[in-house]
Amino acid sequence: MATYISKRLLAVIPIILFAIFLMFSLIRLSPVDPAEAYLAAAHIHPTEEVLAEKRQEFGLDQPLLMQYFHTVKEIAQLDFGNSFVTNTPVWQEVAARMPATIQLAVSSILLAIAISIPLGFLSAIYKNGLIDHFSRLLSFLGASIPQFWLGYLLIFLFSVKLDLFPVEGRGSWQHFVLPSMTLSLALIAIYTRLLRASVLEELEQVYVLYARTRGIKERAIMVKHVLKIAILPMMTGLGMNLGKLLTGTIIVEQVFSWPGFGRFFVEAIFNRDIPVIQCYVVMAACLFILCNLIVDIVQLYMDPRISMKGRIPS
Q1: Residue 101's closest CA among 282, 283, 269?
Q2: Helix (H) or strand (E) holding 165
Q3: Contact 102, 246 (CB under 8 A)
Q4: What H or E segment, with its residue span, contains residue 31?
Q5: What's the whole-model pTM score?
Q6: Phi and psi of 119, rounded to 5°?
Q7: Residue 82: beta bridge partners?
């Protein structure tokens, strides 16, 4: 296991370097001059002398290869520079906003898991029954309703009309309800149908017939064997979605004025705050890789048939 994790961590290095290279190239190819963006954010008139001074300060007068290696070195030290808008270290700004995004992401994932696992499992057990039809309807709604529209709909219903939950901000547990519901509905739609299909597939396997022949109780077969294997595809999707949520639920954070990382990134785009954009790209790549690595390790423990090479031997 330690060897497997070490190999996976070593494989992360070229992926991170490629993400930095891609980010570096897109910024250099864009028509936005970092020096001009800084002066515009600082409300300083961009004269030629001031522009030349800022380009030299940012190292933009050096060859591109030197600029790239300098960028990699700074990122390795978690030095993303200062924000053009607040003039404070970007890492400090991100560290102040990440807890809000993490809390919202974790609450949304937990809500989606708590609903989709029993709903997807029961939909497969009672195929074409009432629960199955309800889960199908819920999945269609979750997959088709845009998140921003759902967020405003929940605000109108539960905040404006019923006055049950606050409209915006972050504070008590009540502030988590509407954003978490908005984010989790799409996840419930995916996980429910994915788990249902996986359970139906496992029920056709030979080991289920053998277990019933041996007289093992039906509940034990379903929970200890079928569900344990059928949940693995859902775990894979969970890793991707968790990485996406941790990099900032941009639309939902804008709708509910949630002080998280995603909203901070949107503001950085409008303000052309290049250091913040660089930090977002690198963090997004790292979080996606980390979440998928954790999911792979969990799957190894849940299904011993999966080898360290990442496949189920025949």
Answers
A1: 283
A2: none
A3: yes
A4: none
A5: 0.77
A6: -70, -45
A7: 89
- Crossing angle (nearest 10°) for helices 274-302 and 261-271: 150
Which long-range CB contacts under 8 A does 123-132 form with residues at least 24 apart? Answer: 123/192, 123/196, 124/195, 124/196, 124/197, 124/199, 124/200, 124/203, 125/199, 125/222, 127/200, 132/196
- Give 84-116 pLDDT, tens digit per residue: 888 888 888 888 888 888 888 888 989 999 999
Domain ranges of the chain: 2-76, 98-262
Quote the tokens at residue 142. 């979750």
DSSP per-residue letters across 71-99: HHHHHHTT---B-TTT-SBHHHHHHHHHH
* pLDDT one-digit tens code per residue, 218-272: 888 888 888 888 888 887 778 777 777 777 677 888 888 888 888 888 888 888 8
Task: Look at phi and psi of residue 215 and say left if phi exceeds 0, alpha if psi is from -120 to 50, else beta.
Answer: left
Q: Which residues, other chains included, contact 105 with Cβ-Cβ below 8 Å and sequence gap of 6+?
A: 183, 242, 245, 246, 249
CATH architecture of 98-262: Orthogonal Bundle (1.10)
Q: What sign for the dihedral angle of Cα 30, 35, 39, 42? A: positive
